[in-house]
Input
Amino acid sequence: MSFNFPPYGQGTYRVFLYVNGWNMGRYVANLGPQNRFPVPAGILDYNGTNTVVLAVWATSDDGANITEFELAVDSVFQGGTGPVASNNPLWEARDSF
Output
C-alpha cells in the first residue's frame, strides 16, 4: 500500500506523513520528485483502526491546498507466511522535562 500526493509542481506547501505514529516521509509540493510513499508491512493494522496524520504548512501567502491525497493498493500477494503481525508499541503520554 502507498499514500499518494499530487504530482510535482501543484502548490507551495510541505507535508510530513505519519501512519500509526511512524514517520513515513516528507512531501514538498513544488520540489519533487517523490509523491508516492509506500507503507511497509507491519505498520498498518489490517484488522483494526489506523491513524494517518498529515502535518501541513504553507510556504507562501497563498496557503496550502492539497488537491489530491489517496491510499492506493499497489499489489496483492498471497504466500505461506500467514497474517502480518503488528506488535508496535502504543502511544502514551510522557512526563515533560
User: Anything to note?
Assistant: The beta strands are 2-4, 13-19, 22-28, 36-38, 52-58, 70-72. The two ends are 38 Å apart (CA to CA). Residues 11 and 65 are 7 Å apart (CA to CA). The first strand starts at residue 2 and ends at 4.
